[in-house]
Amino acid sequence: MLSLFFLCLCLKSHICFGADTITANQSLSGDQTIVSAGGKFELGFFEAGNTANYYIGMWYYKKLVPDQTIVWVANRVQPVSDRFSSELRISDGNLVLFNESKTPIWATNVSSSSASFIHVVLLDNGNLALRAGSLPLWQSFDQPAHTFLPESKLGFNNVTKRTQLLTSWKNSEDPAPGPFSLELDATSNSFIIKWNRSQQYWTTGFWDQSRHRFSLLSEMLMPNHIFNFRYVTNENESYFTYSLYGANITSRLIMDVSGQVKQLSWLHTGGWKLLWIQPKNHCDVYGLCGAFSRCSEKPLPLCNCLNGYEPKSKVDWDLQDYSLGCSRKTRLQCGNVTGVDGMSDRFIEMSSRLSSEDIQIQNLTYVHSIEDCESICLNDCNCTAYGYSSSSSECSTWKGDMWADENGRTLYIRTAASDYKNPTSNVMLIGRKRTIVIATVSATAGLLTIVFGHFLWKNTLGKRSETIKNLSAAGVENDTELPLYSLRSILVATNNFSEANKLGEGGFGPVYKGILPENQEVAIKRLSKKSGQGQQEFMNELKLIAKLQHTNLVRLLGCCIEAEEMILVYEYMPNRSLDKFLFDPSEKTKLDWGRRFRIIEGIAQGLLYIHKYSRLRIIHRDLKASNILLDGTMNPKISDFGMAKIFDINQTEANTNRVVGTYGYMSPEYARYGHFSEKSDVFSFGVLLLEIVSGKKNAVFYRSERSLTLAGWAWDLWNEGRGIEVIDASIREIFQAHEALRCIHVGLLCVQESAADRPTMASVIHMLQGNEATSLPPTKEPAFSTQKNFSAIGSSQRSTNYSNNALTISLPEAR
Ligand SMILES: *[C@@H]1O[C@H](CO)[C@@H](O)[C@H](O)[C@H]1NC(C)=O
Ligand SMILES: *[C@@H]1O[C@H](CO)[C@@H](O)[C@H](O)[C@H]1NC(C)=O
Ligand SMILES: *[C@@H]1O[C@H](CO)[C@@H](O)[C@H](O)[C@H]1NC(C)=O
Ligand SMILES: *[C@@H]1O[C@H](CO)[C@@H](O)[C@H](O)[C@H]1NC(C)=O
Ligand SMILES: *[C@@H]1O[C@H](CO)[C@@H](O)[C@H](O)[C@H]1NC(C)=O
Ligand SMILES: *[C@@H]1O[C@H](CO)[C@@H](O)[C@H](O)[C@H]1NC(C)=O
Ligand SMILES: *[C@@H]1O[C@H](CO)[C@@H](O)[C@H](O)[C@H]1NC(C)=O
Ligand SMILES: *[C@@H]1O[C@H](CO)[C@@H](O)[C@H](O)[C@H]1NC(C)=O
Ligand SMILES: *[C@@H]1O[C@H](CO)[C@@H](O)[C@H](O)[C@H]1NC(C)=O
Ligand SMILES: *[C@@H]1O[C@H](CO)[C@@H](O)[C@H](O)[C@H]1NC(C)=O
């Protein structure tokens, strides 16, 4: 009724109901809106929360998305309170918002010489375009708020020097720019999230043109029918953009108030579905908990003040707004030893992401011991924290607020003696899952002590020797010692991580060849710096592999944790990885049948060891050709334990809500339900075995007509009595037919749909070594060999974006 009335009143100076354009003599105010021609987006005044603050904004047209979802805001910092006496109109060739007192509070700010037929039109892709006739003058796509819409660009224009970046809202009811921003780092061709426009805490990794993805953004690996990603970089501009394959899909990417990037899609059944989120952990968001506070995912609350500190604003804190952080409960004695209890200030240990480049650094001196460093800080009344590096003798002191971060360097925070609890209560449990173990550095011995318990202990006394004492008092056992390399020696060994030394790029960072003194050749894996990713995997790998000793497992020689670097040092494998031979037509002939069979046996022995005979029971979870390294004599060694999981001795299976692994090698129960066991490794082994015998990549079958998987193809031939045709043509001249056929048979047994049908590694070895007389059980149809059971994991063999199956993926956590 009302809208009909409004339609009749469509005056010349006002917007017509349903129009998509504002022309020179029209204005928009009150409840008036414009709607894009195809009914996708709507623009007008909106109220943020229940604040009575009004903003000019854009949202999805309500027939498409009934819950008003703001995608763009014009006057982010200056709202109006009376939208009926405020107006948006064209003035002096610009789109201008006038407030109640007719003062311009927001404008497009373009200078145009041509003033003919200036108008603004709302397009169906969510772009608001100011034009003079058909000449573009300005567009909202160039000034995004917190939403990155399909078809818009996010990046840097080298001609206009303009940058598009997303900034979070201040809070859910205030669209003013908040502390978090997503922007392009043109020098590294990556997107990064920064706090306060300065502190980077997350990155997508560089754009890898050949794989068509950002190197650290695992979400982009999922085969999908939804997004078509594109990254363009040339001398004029660098930007990232994406489009949607389906015309009726509604999807958006936002820089959320939580400091996380989210991709959301509107469900036809109603509601926004979260497709992915990064960083996954709240605590990986810098600055979330404010100063002198510590973040932990569990138990709630997310943020807790350090001992001796209390929330600056209890009200905000209780509303879960932690950004103001904490302040000291008791004034520092500041050298006044005649003070409260005759004690000087003490220090509590905290991890901080602060690096020496940070502005808060007050003084950097070189002293011989941590005690000397501590007394420098004590003697300076303004010093709030110090950090000490024993390898470089650097003593850094800071003033002002300190920001905690689990993955950062260790700092000692000043606190009043009266707030300093007795040391045992200050022993701190760290680590998110209470299963990982802290590595304590023993400075004098140059050794890293890895403690395998169920808890993480850290001392708070600032004296490293006491850490060890506390640990033994806590009854932690099974220490393993591992050489600790200094960063300096790693830099020398790799020639400053030179490109020439680079061996390749693993899931969590590049791998370099290094030469240690005494000419020992090593492989050095450098975990991506500042990525906030992979640290958990780092600890996992350290903890696991340091304990494993087997001729078919790659050996960890040591590590380096210094500054912001996390580095692993492995024995060097001159023949690199199996895939380099197997899938390269010019190299594969080097792998004759005898070598292939020995490689299969070696991998099987290595797996049996981690499943059964090591002191821990380990599921590798990411077995694939590129993770099998070959030594000088082509002896295979399993590597990359970053994804591995330890089982209790009595545990046989487990679930994870974080599915990691590589498509094509993942067992159906793992890919579908995150359910893993030794049998999921057996499945991957079966795929790998068939690859070794056939010389064919499992991945290429996703696009082939005959069969969807390598196993399906081999099974078809096998059933037709043509098993010999499965064998790599390049070795078909000379091979042991019975051995090769036996391998195919075992491979097919390993990739069966039901985990219960698959053999254990012990029986795999038994079957591989069996003589001709040993009969093997018949095999059932492999998993994923038909369209029906393959599509059940929600992916497709026909994806155009899914170009590289040999990479490790990590699916978002189910929520
Ligand atoms: C806008 O108003 C001006 C002066 O009032 C008039 O000259 C002009 O023709 C009008 N333009 C349109 C498109 O109605
Ligand atoms: C309109 O904006 C101007 C400039 O910011 C401001 O001084 C004035 O108070 C605003 N008017 C109202 C009614 O808020
Ligand atoms: C327009 O310019 C003014 C003054 O330079 C500035 O405050 C305002 O943010 C600019 N508006 C836009 C949309 O860039
Ligand atoms: C945030 O950035 C501003 C400007 O770069 C700086 O002055 C301020 O100190 C920063 N805030 C904190 C808490 O670091
Ligand atoms: C940007 O343009 C300048 C010249 O205007 C050029 O020197 C520079 O290389 C360009 N930057 C990139 C990243 O292409
Ligand atoms: C960059 O801009 C110049 C001038 O507009 C144009 O001639 C050139 O083709 C552009 N380069 C690319 C790669 O688009
Ligand atoms: C829109 O999407 C739904 C669900 O994916 C589909 O069933 C429907 O056919 C699509 N409609 C059009 C017009 O593409
Ligand atoms: C030291 O502490 C005592 C007791 O709190 C106080 O009376 C005295 O003024 C303090 N001295 C200084 C220099 O702060
Ligand atoms: C840094 O600390 C040293 C040792 O306490 C002191 O001698 C020096 O004056 C300090 N420098 C500054 C700039 O505070
Ligand atoms: C501590 O800071 C205050 C205020 O910034 C300054 O006046 C004073 O000189 C500083 N004291 C020292 C020892 O640096």
From TrEMBL:
<keyword id="KW-0812">Transmembrane</keyword>
<dbReference type="GO" id="GO:0048544">
    <property type="term" value="P:recognition of pollen"/>
</dbReference>
<dbReference type="InterPro" id="IPR000719">
    <property type="entry name" value="Prot_kinase_dom"/>
</dbReference>
<dbReference type="Pfam" id="PF00954">
    <property type="entry name" value="S_locus_glycop"/>
</dbReference>
<keyword id="KW-0723">Serine/threonine-protein kinase</keyword>
<keyword id="KW-0472">Membrane</keyword>
<keyword id="KW-1015">Disulfide bond</keyword>
<keyword id="KW-0325">Glycoprotein</keyword>
<dbReference type="Pfam" id="PF07714">
    <property type="entry name" value="PK_Tyr_Ser-Thr"/>
</dbReference>
<keyword id="KW-0808">Transferase</keyword>
<feature type="domain" description="Protein kinase">
    <location>
        <begin position="497"/>
        <end position="784"/>
    </location>
</feature>
<keyword id="KW-0418">Kinase</keyword>
<feature type="domain" description="Apple">
    <location>
        <begin position="334"/>
        <end position="416"/>
    </location>
</feature>
<dbReference type="InterPro" id="IPR011009">
    <property type="entry name" value="Kinase-like_dom_sf"/>
</dbReference>
<keyword id="KW-0067">ATP-binding</keyword>
<dbReference type="Pfam" id="PF08276">
    <property type="entry name" value="PAN_2"/>
</dbReference>
<comment type="similarity">
    <text>Belongs to the protein kinase superfamily. Ser/Thr protein kinase family.</text>
</comment>
<keyword id="KW-0547">Nucleotide-binding</keyword>
<dbReference type="GO" id="GO:0005524">
    <property type="term" value="F:ATP binding"/>
</dbReference>
<dbReference type="Pfam" id="PF01453">
    <property type="entry name" value="B_lectin"/>
</dbReference>
<dbReference type="GO" id="GO:0004674">
    <property type="term" value="F:protein serine/threonine kinase activity"/>
</dbReference>
<dbReference type="InterPro" id="IPR001480">
    <property type="entry name" value="Bulb-type_lectin_dom"/>
</dbReference>
<feature type="signal peptide">
    <location>
        <begin position="1"/>
        <end position="18"/>
    </location>
</feature>
<keyword id="KW-1003">Cell membrane</keyword>
<dbReference type="InterPro" id="IPR036426">
    <property type="entry name" value="Bulb-type_lectin_dom_sf"/>
</dbReference>
<protein>
    <recommendedName>
        <fullName>Receptor-like serine/threonine-protein kinase</fullName>
        <ecNumber>2.7.11.1</ecNumber>
    </recommendedName>
</protein>
<dbReference type="InterPro" id="IPR003609">
    <property type="entry name" value="Pan_app"/>
</dbReference>
<feature type="domain" description="Bulb-type lectin">
    <location>
        <begin position="19"/>
        <end position="143"/>
    </location>
</feature>
<keyword id="KW-0732">Signal</keyword>
<feature type="transmembrane region" description="Helical">
    <location>
        <begin position="436"/>
        <end position="457"/>
    </location>
</feature>
<dbReference type="InterPro" id="IPR008271">
    <property type="entry name" value="Ser/Thr_kinase_AS"/>
</dbReference>
<dbReference type="InterPro" id="IPR000858">
    <property type="entry name" value="S_locus_glycoprot_dom"/>
</dbReference>
<dbReference type="InterPro" id="IPR001245">
    <property type="entry name" value="Ser-Thr/Tyr_kinase_cat_dom"/>
</dbReference>
<dbReference type="GO" id="GO:0106310">
    <property type="term" value="F:protein serine kinase activity"/>
</dbReference>
<keyword id="KW-1133">Transmembrane helix</keyword>
<dbReference type="GO" id="GO:0005886">
    <property type="term" value="C:plasma membrane"/>
</dbReference>
<dbReference type="InterPro" id="IPR024171">
    <property type="entry name" value="SRK-like_kinase"/>
</dbReference>
